[in-house]
Amino acid sequence: MILLFLETIRDPGALREAAARARAAGKAVLAYKLGRSEAGAAMAVSHTGAVAGSDAAVDALLAASGIARLDTFEGLIEAPPLFSGASPLPAPRRAVSVLTTTGGGAALVVDRLGLAGIASPRIRDMTLAGTEPARIAAELVEMEADGETDAVLAVIGSSAQFRPETSVAGVVAAAGGMTKPLAAFLAPDAPATAARLAAAGIACFRTPEAAADALRARLAWRPPAPRAAAGDVSAATSALAAARGRSLDEAEARTVFAALGVPLAPGYLVTDLDGLSGIPWSLPYPVALKAVSASLPHKTEAGAVVLNLSDRGALRHAAREMVARLSGTPLSGLLVSPMQVGVGEVLLGFRRDPQAGPSVVLGAGGVLAELLPPPIVRPAPVSREDAAEMVAVAPLRHLRGFRGRPMGDLAALAEAVAAFSLLAALPDVAEAEVNPLLVRPAGQGVLALDALILRG
After folding, report:
1. What is the pLDDT of residue 436?
2. What SS3 state is found at 9?
3. In the list 208, 282, 371, 453, which could disulfide-bond 108, CB 3.0-4.6 Å?
4. What is the DSSP letter of 224?
5. Is the CB of residue 30 less than 8 Å from the CB of residue 216?
6. What is the Cα–Cα distance from 4 to 74, expressed in whole angstroms?
7. Helix, strand, or coil (residue 312)
8. Where are the strands (E) in 287-356, listed by range?
9. CA gap 40, 56 in Å, rounded
10. In terms of C-beta density within 10 A (0-12 exposed, 13-18 middle, 19 or more buried), how is residue 193 classed?
């Protein structure tokens, strides 16, 4: 076993390599990381920085490294027997069955498991059976055989304090033949009984918080993830080099995203407000109008977006008003795009975190991105397979036929996530975002409706 107490991470790549070597040697790695309260300390220019702070990126890095993260320090110290000589569960159902000789003690830990999103499909109260070893052993073995159960927890009450020689004899007897994780929680604390369990190689916890934390970490534990290849980013590198300043304007950012293979909504750059040169007469209306400026990362709040302009005259009038409204802002031009219709919007973000390194973020998009459930974060770049897994677990119910809505093109979304994550190979990029990325019905693809890139 290797236990890590981490104040910071200075080289995420080296950490991943070391964790992979440890796993290859048959050693589990557990970590307790300080700094959870700093998740929002480095607020970024993009929405990505607000919805996926540094700690989420660290979480993703540790998970991809095959490192089990504990939320409690006591859990870190008491969890090792759950991991020693073991492998990650192939397809955990996030379910722990509980055998107890004390109803109150079981309620303590079942509550904590529930808060961690872990179900308790079977709870067996054996208070009346006392501590008869044969009955307890038989019940534990039966619980393990339950196909809905990932792990089994034995909760031992006051008998653990007053009869240490017999209180856990049934638990110890069953442990030798069990293949699923087995743990014990003693309520109240009973050091002599805890020592007996430890001698038998059984994880024993003194608090319900530590017990639930360790079981959560055990069920969430995964093998180290393969590192995705960076891919060819030469065209994107050239597009980035041609851009001016630390913040790219939207036209420059669109060029970089296009070079990476991220699908973009059609857009026309306007610099001539009277003639609207560059805008084809065949342009379909209605259209959206946006100001193009490196000084406007959030256009909606600045009044730099006008939607549903019905014809060329309305476009010309809105363009003049926008330029007047933003008279104190340096503009590169105005971007005109036909209005697009889809199933829903997502946020696609990128951050180069000082501890976790480059990360890609996928979550609900649009102006409500910061108010909706937390997004999915993964170390970047990601493979197409990893991107598809992100899409599958992200909080995107609105794209999955929710309440009769059409299914979104989730395959195209995964392709866009993988292409976007190649920003990891551009060391100058500190943050980037497409918000929103419009997901159209299945088979019709996705379109980036906005583009933001910030250099480091």
Report:
1. 92
2. coil
3. 208
4. P
5. no
6. 13
7. helix
8. 287-292, 305-309, 333-338, 344-353
9. 10
10. buried
- The type of residue at 326 is L
Q: 270: which residues sit within 8 A by CB, 6+ positions away?
A: 276, 277, 278, 279, 319, 333, 334, 335, 336
Q: Looking only at Cα atoms, what is the longest distance across the chain?
A: 92
**For residue range 129-148, what is the model confidence (pLDDT) as tens digits?**
556 899 999 999 999 999 99
Single-letter amino acid code for the residue at 55 = D
How does residue 49 score in pLDDT terms, banded at 50, 70 and 90? low
d(Cα 248, Cα 294) in Å, to the nearest integer?
5
Beta carbons within 8 Å of 264's beta carbon, 6+ residues apart: 254, 257, 258, 447, 448, 451
Q: Is 206 helix (H, G, I), strand (E, B) or coil?
A: coil
Output the pLDDT for position 43: 44
The amino acid at 186: L
Distance from C-alpha of 311 to C-alpha of 283, rounded to nearest angstrom: 9
Helix spans in 200-297 (H): 208-220, 234-242, 250-260
Q: How far is CA 217 from CA 60, 75, 146, 225, 359, in A?
A: 13, 9, 21, 17, 22
Written as six digits, the tokens of 399 are 């794209």
- For 363, phi then psi, to 5°, come to -160, -175
Q: Could you give the 3-state DSSP secondary structure of residue 232? A: coil
Of 201, 209, 227, give the one whose Cα is nearest residue 66. 227
In Å, how far are 50, 56, 180, 282, 454 from 423, measured between CA atoms?
Answer: 19, 19, 41, 35, 11
